Amino acid sequence: MRRFSSKAVFLCNNYHLPLLPSQPNTLIPIQSYSSTRFHDPPTTHFTSPSPPTSSLQNPSKFNPTHNEIPRQSSHRGSGFGLVRLENNNPEDSAATGHSHDEFAADVEKVYKILRKFHSRVPKLELALKESGVVVQSGLTERVLNRCGDAGNLGYRFFIWASKQPSYRHSYEVYKAMIKSLAKMRQFGAVWALIEEMRKENTMLIGPEVFVVIMRRFASARMVKKAVEVLDEMPKYGCEPDEYVFGCLLDALCKNGSVKEAASLFEEMRVRFTPTIKHFTSLLYGWCKEGKLMEAKFVLVQMREAGFEPDIVVYNNLLSGYSVAGKMADAFDLLQEMRRKGCEPNATSFTILIQALCSLEKMVEAMQVFVEMERSGCEADIVTYTTLISGFCKWGKIDKGYEILDSMIQKGHAPNQMTYLHILLAHEKKEELEESLELVEEMRKIGCMPDLNIYNTVIRMSCKLGEIKEGVQLWNDMEANGLSPGLDTFVIMIHGFLEQGCLVEASDYFKDMVGRGLFSASQYGTLKELLNALLRADKLETSKDVWSCMMTKGCELNVYAWTIWIHALFANGHVKEACSYCLDMMDAELMPQPDTFAKLMRGLRKLYNRQIAAEITEKVRKMAAERGVTFKMYKRRGERDLKEKVKAKKDGRKRRSRRRQWGGGRGRANLGVT
């Protein structure tokens, strides 16, 4: 393993930065940035106020922007774009912090029971009753957090606990359950729960409950629904104030709805007196999108309202310049901050370092790091993590280890995010052994791996065909009190599919469904699994998977049914495909035109007029109910089917030509040469 000794030389001695004689602590802007532009704009951090805000109280820390790392689709390509510098999410900390308190043993006992019997309610309730666990508010909250993304498991326990004598859910328990349901976007259940809270005790309903709902609506880009929460609050005896309105603005700006937030701010200025947090949220949103003109207008509005920019505002502007590729302006702003008596902090320098790292300007990034320390601003874990991320992104893992050693020497304990960037670099080079050694080293220094770490190492194991190692890591993860998330399940399912372990892949898929993690975003995984099972003549296993989805209450739309019916048809199971098509129509879902056309062709070949007539009659009726003529529906189906067949043939021809000529890109290059 390429691990540097802890006797590594202090990095600053290797980089020299000339200083202005008249201003010994002034950073000299790198002149080449005056005409530099980002070809690929870096993902830069902004310091956004999140009421109650820690960034205002301690501006040396970044405030996370609700971007979970890593998602399977988000970091596979680049891996290092966003350095998440601080985790203020109580849900995550509760899931990853393995505090051995009085409830630890009971929480694990309950969690195992929930996993075993979650689909059989009578047996689940009996097992919980016989477990000897005494229900308390603290225990219920811990169980909900232990269930993690598997909100269905937590909800089962929440319902059972509410039936126990001498027990009533506390405010914190309701809040945790609302967070879990809102995360699953079960907003109907959330409002039902709030109604239950009102009937139980109106004192249980506070502003924070509605803030949770606002944030979830905002993250789902349901802006109108998020705003409507303000109007719903008085119905529950809770009047919105400047704090709640600030939370709404913050949520909208963090989730890409800054235009709507700005309009809402102007509309509500009379109702809610503007505060510096309101202005800073808008500034953050515009800077995040690189809209500097709008950000400067907010700055003018802020000053007109009597608020002077503080370190949080300046750091947002620094981030805005970085996103827009205006590095010379960013360095000028750093000097302006000093002139106005607002000394740059660790966050200020780290923003610049991250922007330079994203441009592969590692020498310049180290120069900023050196200047930061020389100016008396001590680098923190965030700064070191940013540098490690930059070096690892560009394949310089050894340098990353060197900085890690220097960081530990200086008394800064690395966290999971620090190690994650090194692991991602190892994953890029398919270095599983080094990754496992690094995870072991994490444990030795007391930094327990979190879900992101496990996801990365498990994905690498599956990618390299070491599926047994992946299963061992999974078991280790659960033994350490971590619940697998949606990404973890998807990684394992694809890993088993790639190794041809179809039964195991099906078992993990059903477990994922049982925990309530399946959603429309996983239809691709469903399609791949069903087709793999049917190609391997495992019809009953595939039916079992579909039955599991039906019985576990998954919301299956027409696209899910289409995937299943087309998979059956494509693998020669025409009668089964027709049978499930009838089931779909019984569920008031009309088949897509090409699905109907495909089934009719298959039935004609089988000379099965009875089923064809039954399907046709139902389709005629449903088309009439929807105001569509059957002839138009049928004609469109035939047309769509022909277009798909043609597109498939054209794709085959293109691939054949590429193979014949050695690839289109190579031919283009030859032409240029």
From TrEMBL:
Family matches, as InterPro entries: PPR_rpt, TPR-like_helical_dom_sf
Biased composition (Basic residues): 645-660
PROSITE patterns: PPR
Pfam families per UniProt: PPR, PPR_1, PPR_2
Compositionally biased region (Polar residues): 56-76
Region (Disordered): 38-99, 644-673
Record keyword Flavoprotein present: no
Top-level division of the source organism's lineage: Eukaryota
Gene3D superfamilies to which the protein is assigned, alphabetical: Tetratricopeptide repeat domain
Keywords: Repeat
Ranges occupied by PPR repeats: 206-240, 241-271, 275-309, 310-344, 345-379, 380-414, 415-449, 450-484
Protein name: Pentatricopeptide repeat-containing protein
Protein source organism: Rhododendron griersonianum
Lineage: Eukaryota, Viridiplantae, Streptophyta, Embryophyta, Tracheophyta
